């Protein structure tokens, strides 16, 4: 129902202003290009992300405390 109303609105706009779709097309192209660039950046970053998953992350070694320090306190 809502989609039909929306399509009717677009049809009415096209009858009043036939150049409406021509003005909207560059915006659609820009959005498509932005989505394409986003996909490419994501795919380029994916190997770095995957390699970080397999790295072994450990805490730094604890400093050695001497027995003298432990017995004095």
Summarize the structure.
The protein has 73 residues and is mostly helical. The protein is built from three helices and no strands.
Span between termini: 79 Å
What is the molecular shape? Answer: rod-shaped
State the order of secondary-structure elements, H for helix, E for strand: HHH
Q: How does the helix and strand content classify structurally? A: mainly alpha
Number of helices: 3
Helix content: over 70%
Mean pLDDT: 78
Radius of gyration: 31 Å
Low-confidence stretches: none
For the sheet with most strands, the description reads: none
**DSSP strand content:** under 5%
The counted number of beta strands is 0
Molecular structure report:
- This protein has 73 residues and is mainly α.
- Helix content is 77%, strand content 0%.
- It is built from three helices and no strands.
- The chain has helices spanning 2-16, 20-54, 67-72.
- The longest helix has 35 residues, at 20-54.
- The chain is rod-shaped.
- It starts with a helix and ends with a helix.
- The model has no long low-confidence stretch (mean pLDDT 78).
Secondary structure elements and pairings:
Blueprint: H1 2-16, H2 20-54, H3 67-72
Keywords:
73 residues, mainly alpha, rod-shaped
């Amino acid at each position: 129902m809502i989609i039909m109303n929306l399509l009717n609105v677009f049809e009415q706009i096209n009858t009043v202003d036939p150049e409406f779709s021509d003005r909207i097309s560059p915006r659609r192209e820009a959005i498509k290009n932005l989505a394409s660039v986003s996909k490419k950046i994501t795919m380029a970053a994916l190997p770095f992300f995957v390699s970080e998953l397999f790295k072994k992350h450990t805490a730094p070694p604890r400093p050695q405390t001497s027995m003298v320090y432990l017995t004095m306190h």
